[in-house]
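Thread: Modeling a multi-component assembly for a lab meeting

Hi all, long-time lurker, first post. My supervisor asked me to bring a structural picture of a complex we are working on to next week's group meeting, and I have zero experience with this. I have the sequence lines for every component (656 residues in total). Could someone generate the structure of the whole assembly? Inputs are pasted exactly as I received them:
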Amino acid sequence: MKKEKYELQYGRLLEKIEKRIEKLFNNKKPASLYEPCKYALESGGKRLRPVLLLLSTKAAGGKFNDAYNAALAVEIFHNFTLVHDDIMDNSPIRRGRPSLYKKFDTNTAILAGDNLIAFAYKLLLKDCQKNTNQIIEIFTQGIIDVCEGQSLDKEFETRRNVSLREYRNMISKKTAALLTVCTGIGGLIAGANYEVVRILMNYGKNLGMAFQIQDDLLDITADEKTFGKKVGSDLIEGKKTYLFLKALEKAKGEDKKKLLRVIKNSGIESNEIESYKSIYEKYGVPEDAKKEIDKYTRSALNGLNKLPDNEGSLMLRWLANSLINRTK
Amino acid sequence: MKKEKYELQYGRLLEKIEKRIEKLFNNKKPASLYEPCKYALESGGKRLRPVLLLLSTKAAGGKFNDAYNAALAVEIFHNFTLVHDDIMDNSPIRRGRPSLYKKFDTNTAILAGDNLIAFAYKLLLKDCQKNTNQIIEIFTQGIIDVCEGQSLDKEFETRRNVSLREYRNMISKKTAALLTVCTGIGGLIAGANYEVVRILMNYGKNLGMAFQIQDDLLDITADEKTFGKKVGSDLIEGKKTYLFLKALEKAKGEDKKKLLRVIKNSGIESNEIESYKSIYEKYGVPEDAKKEIDKYTRSALNGLNKLPDNEGSLMLRWLANSLINRTK
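Re: Modeling a multi-component assembly
Sure thing. I ran the full set together rather than chain by chain. Output:
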C-alpha cells in the first residue's frame, strides 16, 4: 500500500517537473541555440535527480515549492553532461533518439551544453533565498567532480591496469557526485543545519555508488526486453566496469587470458557475450556486485535513520530500495 | 607622466595576475584534465578582463586584494570561450601556439572548457563576501550572453542578409557582455550601490562595443608587423564585420556586386585584399568605423564622470583612451 502511495507521489512530482521543463526555453532566441537546448531536455527519463533534490528538501523540513527551480537546475546539469559525453564517447543514440550532436552537429552540441551549464546556475539562483554561497559551492564542486570523473573514465579506456579502487574513485566523481549535489542542495534550500546536510549528502553519495554498480550489473543480467538496450554492451565496448575489473581480479589461467583479450582488443564480438557471462558466473562476480550494491545501499539507508520520519525521508528510503530492485 | 604611471600600475597588476594563474592548477589531478586547463590559461595576452575587474573594484572604493580571485574567474571565463570557440571555428592557432584542441584533441578541449567554467565559479565564490546572489547572477548571465552571441555569429556565417543592427546585437553579447560582467562584478565586490554598478556596467558595455569595432578596423588598417596577424584575415574568411556590413550598405553597382561575391564564396583570396580595401576607402567606411568607435568610447567615458576621481576611475578612463589608440 505504502509502495503505491510513494509511486503515485513520484509520478506527481515527475509531472510537475516535466511541465516546467516544457516551458523552460519558450520564446528564447536565437533558435539555433535554444532548439538544441530544448531537445536535450525533452528526452524524458526517470528525472531521478530533480526528484532526489525535492525529496531532500522535504526530508529536511522544507517545501517542494521552494525547490523546483533547483530541481530543474540539477536535471539541466545532468543533461549538459550527457550532451558533451555523447560527443566524446561517439554515442549516436540517447534514449532511443539521435544524440544532440547527431541530430544537429558537434559545434551546436558543444555550445548548447555550455549554455545549459549557465542556465542551470540561473535557475538554481532563483531558489537561493539562504545559504547561497554553500549552494553554489556544492553545485560548482559537482561540475568539477563530474569533469574529473569523465576525464578518468576516458583515461581508463586506454589504460591496461585499472584497479577496483581507481574504479570506485572514478564513479564516485562521474556518477555519485551529482546525486550528492542533489541531496545536499535539497537540504540547504530547506535551511537545514550542517549535520542534516551531511547525512543527506552521504545518502546521495552512497546511493550514487550503488546506482552505478547496479547499472554495471544490469548490463549483464537484465532481461533485454525490459532493459531497453542490448545486454552485454559494456563487454562489446570493452568498458572497465565493476564486474569486469572484479572478474579480472579473481580469474586465473585461461579465463584471465580471455579477459585480458577484451582490454587488448578494446571489446568483444556480440557472439562472445555468453562465454564471458559464464566466466563472470564461474567466479561469483554478479554476487560480488550484488554485495557491493547492498553495502552502499545499507550505508545510504543507515544515515537516514538519524532523520525524523516524514514524507521526504520515507520516500528517500523507499527510493533507495526500489533503485536496487530496478530492472532498467 | 600620468600615462607612464598608469602603464606601470597596469604592469604591476598584470604581474600579480600572472603569478596567481601560474599556481592555479598546481597538483590538481587527473593530469589528463588539468594539463590542458593550465595550457589554456598560460597563453598570456593583455589580461584585459581581470585588470578591468580590479580597476572597477578600486573605482567603486574597494581594494584590489578583495578581487583577485574574481579577476582570475573572468580570465578563466574568457579562456573557456576561446577553447570552445577554436573548436567551433576550426582555428588551429591561438596567440602563436596550437589551439588547445590541436595541441591535445577535441574531446580534451571540450572537457577542459567545461571544467574551466566550473573553476571560474569556484574562484569567483571566494570573493563573494557580500552581494553573492547579484555577482553570481551577473556572471551567469554573461555566460548565457556569450553563448547566444557565439550562436548568432555562427548563424551569420551562412546567412546572406545581416544588418548592422543585428551585428551590434551580436557583438554586444559575444564581446561586450563579458566586459560588462568584469566591471559590474568589480563594483559589487566593493559593495557599491546600484547606481555605481550601473555606471560601471555601462562603461564595460560601451568599451566592449568600441573594442570589437576597433578589432574589425585593425584587421584592415593595422601595420602587419605590429599587429601580429595577417591584415585582411576577416575578408579572407568572409567574416561579416562592421566594415564589411557598412560597405555593403553604402556601395553601389559593381562595388556592391563585388562585396556580395564575398558572401557567396565565403571569403576572398589573399591577392584580392587591396582591391577590397579600396572599396572600403572609396565609401569612407574606415572613417565610419572610427566614428562608431569614438561614439562608444565617449559613452563609456561620460558615465565615468559621475564617479569620484581615484586610482581606479582614472585608470579606467586612461584604459578606454589607450584601447582606441591601440595598434594590435
